[in-house]
């Protein structure tokens, strides 16, 4: 195809992806109150306040936007694959398509891990730290910013095994080299846990750092498996 046709196809697929996100976000906005209650569930016993007129409206739009993007993610990835795959070789297609599917699954797994483990652990620490001094009355906007940022950051951190597998299959790194750098990995995971978590409590940072380290080891095992299955060159 000529370059102009490629650009037109890209424009169409981007517009379709944006339309899917907008439609999904609009549907989520209709049922945004149950979504907000779900996000409030880890903060059991905490009373939330609307500190300014229209605060909950803007929070609802934000929650619907995040939820719509998550729901539309498979379709957005599908459109990206439809644009990229025709230009790839057969071996590259066999690699890219499963990697993209695994990336989406890991992102959702990261969201679930953050909601189920990281957010409750952070809230327990933050609430208990000042329980004998202050009464927790939180802004709904700041609380949801905290939860959503932590969930998205964890979802992105869960992409590590896919990145390792791609680098290993392309022959850019070997599993022994990655495993030999375990000290740097632990240091990097600790720094990532400190940077990606919006709170400053050590519990959340340790949990996220431990999860990143475990994901790194899973990626090393996947690279080792691909190397063992790769035919030896004479």
Give descriptors for this structure.
234 residues; mainly alpha
Q: Could you describe the 3D structure shown?
A:
The chain is 79% helix and 3% strand. The protein has 234 residues and is mainly α. The chain has a two-stranded parallel sheet with strand order 1-2. α3 packs parallel to α5 (140-157), α6 runs parallel beside α9 and α8 (182-196) packs across α9 (202-229). The chain is flat and about 60 Å long.
Content of β-strand: under 5%
- The H/E string reads HHEHHEHHHHH
- Number of DSSP-assigned strands: 2
Q: What's the alpha carbon Rg, rounded to whole Å?
A: 21 Å
Percent helix, as a range, is: over 70%
Shape: flat
Cα(first) to Cα(last) distance is 39 Å
Enumerate the spans where pLDDT stays under 50 for 5 or more consecutive residues: none
Q: Main β-sheet: number of strands, strand sense, barrel status?
A: 2 strands, parallel
Number of helices: 9
- The chain-level structural class is mainly alpha
What's the quaternary structure here? single chain
- Kindly report the spatial arrangement of strands forming the biggest sheet: 1-2
Arithmetic mean of pLDDT: 83
Topology:
Elements: H1 3-30, H2 32-40, E1 47-49, H3 55-84, H4 90-129, E2 137-139, H5 140-157, H6 160-169, H7 175-180, H8 182-196, H9 202-229
Parallel strand pairs: 1-2
């Amino acid at each position: 195809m000529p370059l102009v046709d490629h650009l037109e196809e890209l424009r169409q697929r981007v517009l379709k992806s944006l339309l899917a996100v907008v439609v999904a976000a609009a549907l989520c906005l209709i049922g945004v109150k149950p979504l907000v209650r779900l996000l409030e569930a880890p903060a059991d016993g905490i009373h939330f306040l609307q500190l300014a007129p229209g605060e909950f409206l803007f929070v609802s739009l934000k929650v619907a936007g995040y939820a719509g993007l998550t729901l539309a993610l498979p379709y957005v990835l599908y459109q990206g694959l439809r644009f990229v795959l025709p230009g790839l070789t057969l071996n590259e297609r066999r690699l890219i398509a499963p990697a993209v599917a695994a990336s989406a699954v890991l992102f959702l797994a990261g969201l679930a891990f953050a909601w189920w483990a990281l957010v409750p652990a952070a809230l327990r620490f933050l609430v208990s730290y000042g329980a004998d001094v202050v009464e927790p009355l939180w802004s709904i906007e700041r609380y949801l910013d905290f939860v959503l940022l932590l969930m998205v950051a964890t979802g992105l951190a869960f992409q590590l095994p896919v990145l390792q597998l791609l680098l290993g299959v392309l022959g850019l790194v070997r599993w022994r080299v990655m495993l030999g750098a375990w000290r740097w990995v632990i240091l990097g995971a600790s720094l990532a846990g400190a940077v990606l978590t919006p709170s400053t409590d050590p519990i959340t940072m340790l949990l996220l750092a431990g999860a990143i380290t475990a994901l790194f080891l899973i990626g090393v095992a996947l690279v080792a498996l691909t190397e063992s299955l790769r035919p030896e060159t004479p």
